[in-house]
Amino acid sequence: MSVTIRQANVSDIPAIHNLVAELASHLGEADHFTSPIEQLERDFKDGFFQAILAEREGEVAGMALYCFVYSTWKGRMIYLEDFVISKRHRRQGIGQQLWDVLKERGRERNCAILKWQVVAEDEGAMRFYRKQDPVFEDQWLNGKVEL
């Protein structure tokens, strides 16, 4: 079965929303996923994020949701916010295909770094990311405040 990798469009927002909900559930955080689909659609239309989708037999099997950010130390970066392969499509090479296209998107925009966060306890995700030869930053803490 072949996989098609393509850029998402606004009609894909329901599938993207479903994949994010699946990720939240997988991480045991379903109660914390509160973004309504309308917000996702509005922010997509406003250009706050982009997504690459993997399709198999007309069904969205996975996605990489990302945005471009800037580092005064490194320059342009591509930031991977969510990387999800639907449970029934995992371990079939789809993640690597998405990853490779995501890296190419970053190169096309002259990005120096692809950056992401991962929950350390997510063993499947950690196995995948370790294959990408990453540098995990243990000296930096993530901070956030609600606005």
TrEMBL record:
<dbReference type="InterPro" id="IPR000182">
    <property type="entry name" value="GNAT_dom"/>
</dbReference>
<dbReference type="GO" id="GO:0008080">
    <property type="term" value="F:N-acetyltransferase activity"/>
</dbReference>
<dbReference type="InterPro" id="IPR051016">
    <property type="entry name" value="Diverse_Substrate_AcTransf"/>
</dbReference>
<keyword id="KW-0012">Acyltransferase</keyword>
<comment type="similarity">
    <text>Belongs to the acetyltransferase family.</text>
</comment>
<feature type="domain" description="N-acetyltransferase">
    <location>
        <begin position="3"/>
        <end position="147"/>
    </location>
</feature>
<protein>
    <submittedName>
        <fullName>GNAT family N-acetyltransferase</fullName>
    </submittedName>
</protein>
<dbReference type="InterPro" id="IPR016181">
    <property type="entry name" value="Acyl_CoA_acyltransferase"/>
</dbReference>
<keyword id="KW-0808">Transferase</keyword>
<dbReference type="Pfam" id="PF00583">
    <property type="entry name" value="Acetyltransf_1"/>
</dbReference>
